[in-house]
Specification:
Length: about 220
């Protein structure tokens, strides 16, 4: 009615750039909408309902450069059904991946797992064909664990903490990864196995080596 106040809320859409329809229209594989798992509120077409690709108009933004593969957050307004794009962006945040952004969780439960430890190389190779495996970025909560049967964990250039957590609940802290591997190797020889691994770090380009800046191993 005349005199009523209408508030239009902005929308935050997060996803990965997968292409361009034109210079100012970006195609994004949406991951989250307003900090929740993505789902379009109203699909424009039946085909649109079966895809996570969303078109974003960035023509109102100056000096913006995004590329295919970038992970972005777009803040703007959902367009009406008859519009040519899904969202008009007011701001774009480009998420940079650092060595602390990727988290890995391996869980083998009561079955446990015994990794291959190479003290001379300072590495531990985990069997990822068993148990449950997760990799997630701080800004992207979808599981991005690659389809590999093993994962070799090494020490990153910059490290924070290395911890062995025994079934008694006691935590043993180590100043370096090689010290942790040596103690872990002794525990495995004594009959222990690994119940879970929690790590933060960076994955190699070939998806097989994880450089850990922090690592927590839980034994059983």
């Amino acid at each position: 009615k005349d005199g009523d106040v209408i508030r239009i809320l902005t929308t935050i859409l997060q996803g990965k750039v997968v292409g361009f329809e034109s210079e100012n229209i970006v195609i994004v594989e949406a991951k989250r909408l307003n900090h929740r798992p993505f789902s379009l509120l109203k699909a424009k077409t039946r085909a649109k309902a079966n895809t996570k690709n969303v078109t974003i108009d960035i023509s109102e933004l100056d000096a913006l450069t995004v590329s295919v593969g970038d992970v972005i957050s777009a803040t703007g307004y959902i367009n009406p059904a008859e519009a040519t794009t899904d969202l008009t962006a007011q701001t774009i945040t480009l998420h940079k991946v650092t060595d602390k952004d990727l988290g890995y969780i391996g869980f083998w439960g009561e079955a446990g797992t015994v990794p291959t430890i190479d003290l001379s190389a300072g590495s531990m190779t985990l069997n990822t064909a068993e148990g449950r495996q997760f990799m997630k970025y701080r800004f992207q909560r979808d599981n991005v664990m690659p389809d590999v049967s093993s994962l070799t964990v090494i020490e990153a250039d910059q490290t924070r903490h290395f911890i062995i957590r025994k079934s008694s609940g006691n935590n043993v802290h180590f100043s370096s990864y090689i010290e942790m591997l040596s103690a872990l190797n002794t525990s495995l020889e004594d009959g222990f196995s690994i119940k879970s691994v929690l790590a933060s770090g960076q994955l190699s380009d070939d998806l097989t080596v994880f450089a850990a800046s922090g690592l927590v191993v839980k034994l059983k």
